[in-house]
Amino acid sequence: MHQFLPYAWFGGKCVPFAEATLSVATHALHYGTGAFGGMRALPNPADSNEILLFRADRHARRLSQSARLLLTELSEDTIHSAIHQFLQANKPTCPVYLRPFVYTSDLGIAPRLHNIETDFLIYGLELGDYLSPEGVSCRISSWTRQEDRSLPLRGKISGAYITSSLAKTEAVKSGFDEALLLNSRGKVSEASGMNLFIVRDGVLITPGVDQDILEGITRASVLELAKTMDIPTLERPVDKSELFIADEVFLSGTAAKVTPVRRVENTDLSASRPVMDAIRDRLTAITEGRDPAFDHWVTRVRLNG
């Protein structure tokens, strides 16, 4: 069972979670016409009255851009203000995951984005490890990642996640933890809700934005961090066969953080992951506010009272 935070941001204010309800006729429920974000917040290990948000500016920017893909305006300032009020109301005492969501709130039956009302909400839940930090097994999904020409993949559009849902369930029901999706050109794209990295001969490699991936914020952070650690990086197409011979394979995402892949299909991968371990340790230090060089990636919210 999920442990939801007691208050949600709904209708422009904080209300008890149980009161943040929608009509069964809500447009976004039927047509997937929404866009969401995901953000981790944790109490500062050194100061329990301070909440740390990882790359809040990037998350707000991406959600604002996603809203524009739905032909609605949601400013970054509006997102930041709502998140701050949300945290002040809830005062979380353990790591939590925030889910801001912009959606068509109209009660209509026509699939459209014009002449329609939209709204914005936030809720949160306690969240530790979304995937096992010891590693996950992955299968190649029979489902294909959508193309940007059929769906705006630069945004986290809620309707797009039907493919992720199908792939994830297929993987779990066939004995795996996670799914890896190929794109329409047969190249590796991403997992059900995470970006993918491989390491070959000391080079950190990840599919580029031309491979129908979501432009993940953790992905971008890993690439930027690796460069400062003198780890060579390369964004390029990744073939399926490379997964079986790579020195390291791992996933990245807000919920998943940095998670190793220990098996792909029936091939066990190396348990030695020096590149991933170095990046994961550094990223953990940053998110916990222990790395002065990247303190600009952390937003600190001081709790009142």
Number of continuous helical runs: 7
CATH superfamily of the largest domain: D-amino Acid Aminotransferase, subunit A, domain 2
Instruction: Quickly name the level 1 CATH class of the largest domain.
Output: Alpha Beta
Q: H/E element string?
A: EEHEEEHHEEEHEEEEHEHEEEHE
User: What fraction, in percent, of the residue positions are helical?
Assistant: 25-40%
User: How is the CATH topology of the largest domain named?
Assistant: D-amino Acid Aminotransferase, Chain A, domain 2
β-strand number: 17
The average pLDDT value, as a whole number, equals 96
Structural class estimated from helices and strands: alpha+beta
Which outline best applies?
globular
Tally of domains:
2
Task: Describe the overall structure.
The chain is of the alpha+beta class and 305 residues long. It folds into two domains: 7-126, 2-Layer Sandwich (D-amino Acid Aminotransferase, Chain A, domain 1), CATH 3.30.470; 136-287, D-amino Acid Aminotransferase, subunit A, domain 2 (D-amino Acid Aminotransferase, Chain A, domain 2). Helix content is 26%, strand content 31%. The protein is built from seven helices and 17 strands. The chain has helices spanning 27-31, 56-69, 76-90, 161-173, 217-228, 240-245, 274-287, and strands spanning 7-10, 13-16, 34-36, 39-44, 47-54, 96-104, 118-126, 136-144, 178-182, 188-191, 195-200, 203-206, 233-235, 248-253, 257-264, 267-268, 298-302. The mean pLDDT is 96.
